[in-house]
Write a structure and sequence with these properties.
elongated, MetI-like fold, mainly alpha, single chain
């Protein structure tokens, strides 16, 4: 058996795997194009009436069915063409972005607030409170959203408020069920038990200990819901249950242009592309946030 002299230095070969940098992970896979698309939607919503090159509701029958600028007969005055009343398609898309952003903001805030609080209450208290809230959520989920829209439209005039109410009643259950499942695991943590021993009331535990720990989940859910809300609003407006003229909506543009699709394709294609890109961008950004904020995924 060989003996290593005491004077011989012994170097242990230890494989050290560096931890991935969070900053490097943030820059990796950033969906720049979806972020740019949503940024344009936000700028259009904030800009209001100052951004559209033409009056979105300005009638010009002499310029009706003007094609986009790259086609024969098109002009740079109407970059994306005009509809059957001579209204600029690009200006109406920009004006519709403001309506979609307002609907998304109100619907996400109210449905998120209601669903989150009910989910926290159901998950924290459990028992009959949990069973009652979950049964109500299941009943609401069993009602088709379009049927709910018809019921609400019968009591309220179709418009922005009707769309927001329908979306809130449809999507609060989504937040409630997901947040409840998060709270069921969080309420067993040591810091919640210590807070109870220290005499903290339910409201203190909710806002100081539980809500900060579900913030990442809420952020991801709200981001993913943007595209769903915009698509749902467009569907209601297309069916005549949502935004009404003279207000401008992407869904209303689709409804007005559908009968002219054979010879004025741009009237229905352009807002359809915008809806598709907005929903796709929302989903891609939501997936990126989920990968970014989940420590388990960040280590992959």
């Amino acid at each position: 058996m060989s003996v290593i002299p005491a004077s011989t230095p012994v170097t242990a070969a230890v494989g050290i795997t560096p931890r991935p940098s969070l900053f490097r992970f943030r820059l990796k896979g950033v969906p720049w194009l979806p972020l740019l698309i949503l940024l344009l939607i936000i700028v259009s919503a904030i800009g209001g009436e100052s951004i559209p090159p033409q009056d979105p509701n300005g009638l010009n029958l002499a310029a009706a069915f003007r094609p986009p600028f790259w086609q024969a007969g098109g002009s740079y005055e109407y970059l994306l063409g005009t509809d059957n009343l001579g209204r600029d398609v690009l200006s109406r898309i920009i004006a519709g972005a403001r309506v979609s952003a307002i609907v998304a903001l109100y619907a996400i805030v109210f449905s998120g607030a209601i669903g989150t609080m009910l989910g926290i209450i159901a998950g924290y208290f459990g028992g009959i409170v949990d069973a009652l809230i979950i049964r109500i959520a299941e009943i609401m989920m069993a009602i088709p959203s379009l049927a709910l829209a018809l019921i609400i439209s019968a009591s309220m005039a179709p418009g922005l408020s009707t769309v927001v109410v329908v979306i809130v009643l449809t999507y609060w259950t989504w937040y409630c069920r997901i947040i409840r499942s998060e709270i069921l695991s969080l309420r067993e943590r040591d810091y919640v038990s210590f807070a109870k021993i220290a005499g903290c009331g339910p409201l203190t535990i909710f806002f100081r200990h539980l809500l900060p720990n579900i913030f990442n989940t809420l952020l991801i859910l709200m981001t993913l819901q943007v595209g769903q809300v915009i698509l749902f609003e467009a569907s209601l407006s297309f069916l005549g249950l949502g935004i009404q003229a003279p207000d401008t909506s992407w869904g209303l543009m689709l409804a007005d242009a559908r009968q002219y699709i054979t010879y004025a394709w741009w009237g229905i294609t352009m807002p359809g592309i915008v809806i598709m890109l907005t929903c796709l961008s929302s989903n891609l950004i939501g997936d990126w946030l989920r990968d970014l904020l989940d420590p388990k995924r960040r280590q992959l």
